[in-house]
Each structure stands twice: as C-alpha cells, then as structure tokens.
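User: My collaborator sent over this chain with a note saying "see what the structure looks like." That's all I know about it. Can you take a look?
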Amino acid sequence: MELITGNITIKHILQHNNNWQNFYDKYSHLIRDAIPWNIDKIFNCRTQNLGFHKYQCLDCGKTVTVPHTCKSRFCSSCGALATDNWISSNLNEFLDVPYKHLVFTIPSEIRTLILHNRKLLLNCLFKSASKTVLSWSNQNKSYIPGIIMVLHTFGRDLKFNPHIHMIITCGGLNLDNSKWISISFIPHLVLKTLWRYQIISSLRSLFKEHSLVLPESQQFSNLASFNKFLNRLYSKTWYVNIGKSLSDPAFTVKYIGRYTKRPVIAETRITAYDDHYVHFNFKDHANNRNVNVKLSVQNFIARIICHIPDKHFRQIRYSGIFACSVKTRSLSIARNLLGQLKQIKPATLSWRNRKIKSSGFDPLFCLQCGISMTLASIGYFKNGKLKTIYLFLLKPIFLTMRKTIKFICTSCGFKEKIPKSVVDDMDMCDLAGDLRFPPRFSCDSCHVGTMYPLFYKNHIGITYKYNPKTRTLTPTLPS
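Assistant: Without extra context I'll predict from the sequence alone. Here is the result:
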C-alpha cells in the first residue's frame, strides 16, 4: 500500500482502484441523477472526450490540441474558473456603497428533512433568508436593499450543513424610489427571530399541504406531532452571523466571489491518500486550531458527492433591488440618486490570455517559426458522436452549443446544423475579408459542393440568405 502525499486530486481518488465505480455499484439506488452525470464530466475534463480546439502553425505544421473542460460546478479547476468569471462579470454591477456579510444557519434537526426534500427545502432557505431581511427593512426603515445570496451545503469538515451566505447593501431605495436611505446597523437578535419564524412557518405550511417527504426515523403521524417537533426547534439556538462591513465594491465582489462557485474542498487541503483512507485538514475557527481528519475512501466519497447540486439548480440568487425582474431599473435609479456611473464591464479572458497571464507563456506561439498558431479544427459532440469542423485562419473562441446555424450544400443539398459559436469563429477570423460571402466549408457528404448557411448575420451586421431553389446567395448590408 502506497501513501500518496502532495498534489492529490479528487479525480485521482475517484478513479484510483475503481473507487467511484465500486461505490456506485453498492449505493446506486440512493444516488441522485446529477451525481453520476457530474462525475462523468469530471473524469472527461480536459480530455478530447468532451471535444477540442486544434491549433496549427501555418509554416511548420506543428499542432496543439486543447481539450475542452467539463464546466462542472463540482470540478475543482472549473469551479475556480467559474468563480473568476463571475467576479469579472459582476464588477460593474455593484453599487459603490457599504455592504454587510450575513450567514443564515439552521439547527441540525432540519438537515435530515432537507436531505429528503432537497430541492423544495433548499429553495425554502433562499426565500426565507430574503423574506427575513426584506420584512425587517420594510417595516422598520421603509427601504429595499440589494441582496445577493449564495447557498453552501457543506461545512469545513465536509458534513452536510446547508446555510446561506448573503451580501446586503447597507441601505437601499425607499419605497417610492425617490431617495437612497443609508443605514449602518443591522439588528442581530431581530434577524434571528425573523429567520426562525420564516423557516418554521414554511415547514408547517408544507406539512399541511402534504408536500414533504418525511424520513422514516422521524415519525410524524399528524399535524400535532409535527407541531411538537417544530416547537422543539423554537427552543434551539438559531444563528444569523453578521460579519464585517465591506466598503469597497471591488473587494466586496471578490469577497463574495469566494463563496459563489468554489468546490467542496480545496485540493490543497487533502494531505494524504492511500488505497483505503483519505486525509484532509480544516481550520476550526471556534477553537482556533487545525483539525486533521481521516476518512475511509467510501466515506470520503459519500461526503463530497452529497454536495453536488441538482441539474439547473441555481446556487446564487438575487433579491431586493438586485432581483432580476427589477435590477436594471432599480440600479439605474440608485446610481442617479447616488451620483454614480455604471462601470464598463471588463472583457472575459480567453483560455490563451489566461495562460499568458498566469505563466507568462503563450501556449499558441510557435517557438520554431516565431508566429502564432491558428485554429485549424473544432471537435464537438452531436447526438453522442464526435464531429469535427475543419477551419482555417481562425482566432480562438471557445465553443458553446446553445444556438446553431443551418447549412446546406450547394451541390447535393445535404443539410447540417453547426454551433453558432463555430460559425462566429469562421466569420471573425476570415483574413480574406470578402464580405460578399458568409462563413462556408466543404461538404462532408459529396465532397464537391460548398456548405452555405441558409441564414446568418455576421459580426458587423451583414445578413446572408441562401435560396436553395435558385442557388443564389443574397448579402444585405446593415441599415
């Protein structure tokens, strides 16, 4: 048995000795669908199994293949990148006002209920935290603050411990949007009482509606027995921790950014792994000491996978004047009242520029020829099969699959849908610059005709329409 220390990844632990497959075979009946889906993505992260971008030096022919990442929220590297991108995209949205960091926690007795009603009760945590703050600000100060909430389901020891991190503006718009009201004090005891009331009243309502799946370990035969359970929760200590004030918006975004999409455990905390046990540490802030934990591989896997979110579940929510339905109008009014201008949104760094920034090395620069490589092909999956689009003289823009452009062969009529981002790559990097023609490529079916888009609008607004009956292409300049 070999003890491995240093640079230990979760992916290695899951794959080594077939650990994940053994765990899945044993507990598959208890595992949510989102878990194997995310695990599979992690196993294929940065491999060509998820597609690739291939770059080539046009002088010597040297190629560099860049496999696609999984973008799973459970992946340690992709989660870190998602955090950086969230911070970058939100820097221009924050108002230049002080903020407070709040943490809403729940008693341990409720955690079992949440495990049996995961989506329903995690949504309930968001709604209750928002109602707690908005009811206090509305009733006592008559204003609406800006609220950002982030759900964490894990504690430092990786046990299931759902809680809400909240960033709230120290003040907000009054109820008729005519004035910005500033506040400096948030009452801790009042929020604790309101938070407890919101959670318990929500649980009672859900029980009455027969919406809860009840664990076998807790016998609730009727409303009276459930009310007895809820009444015991009133005697428990409920915590709403109010952190320090955050005065700088840029620092505030980066501060809350640490909580947004970070992975369950930083892999630097995993200190050792052998065939049977995983060792990791965490800081116990209550006792101000470092704690070393030793778990069997099976227990370690069980702890980390319970924090994988369900598909499409939003871990970050906005409320108050930051709510998506009123955000644009409310922030415009607030900026006018505060005499502030909206900051320019910084550009998101490409994979290449991130590499240059982090290492000072350009991965797409051919040292032999002294020129930059160009994108030669893009591989992507369609209907479970890897397809490759061969391109020329394109700059690197990463693939998204949400929108497609329909192409048709001018010779045989073969039709194919191509991801819009691939077509945009071709358009943006057409060094020939002939605006009479849209992006095009050779037909894979007949190998004679040329594939034209039936309809495409390029990056400068020129619209191209191809009529397959008359085999004519009509470009239209922007008005």
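A starting point for your reply to your collaborator: Residues 400-476 form one domain.
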